[in-house]
Amino acid sequence: MAGRTPIRTINSALIAMIADEDTVTGFLLAGVGNVDLRRKTNYLIVDSKTTVKQIEDAFKDFTSREDVAVVLLSQYVSFSNDGDTVCQSFYKNW
Questions:
Q1: How far apart are CA 89 and CA 9, in angstroms?
Q2: Residue 70, SS3?
Q3: What mean pLDDT value characterizes the chain?
Q4: Which CATH number covers residue 39?
Q5: Which residue in 13, 21, 46, 58 could disulfide with 69, CB within 3.0 to 4.6 Å?
Q6: 3 within a domain of the structure (yes/no)
Q7: CB-based contacts of 55, cutoff 8 Å, min separation 6
Q8: Closest-CA residue to 94 (of 57, 40, 54, 47)
Q9: What is the pTM of this model?
Q10: Does residue 53 form part of some domain?
Q11: Which pLDDT tens digit goes with each residue over 55-81?
């Protein structure tokens, strides 16, 4: 809408992503990616070598950041190979 005035904010809010490479790449192409001055990104690319501990650490980091408004956890990431959900692990250890 060309006539709309943009909403002014002091700080912009980010979407953080914990997802497979294809999902993260799509969001990055859409302009959602961010790298701050400390070279910290707003995404974690999960593959078969990524441990549950790394996913948990990224989730805790994203939820503690002031500039992150939404944490996107893809369905691909939410289930581990043993059938247990990563989300259940979050709630047990959080």
A1: 35
A2: strand
A3: 80
A4: 3.40.50.10580
A5: 13
A6: no
A7: 18, 44, 46, 77, 86
A8: 57
A9: 0.74
A10: yes
A11: 889 999 999 988 889 999 888 777 655
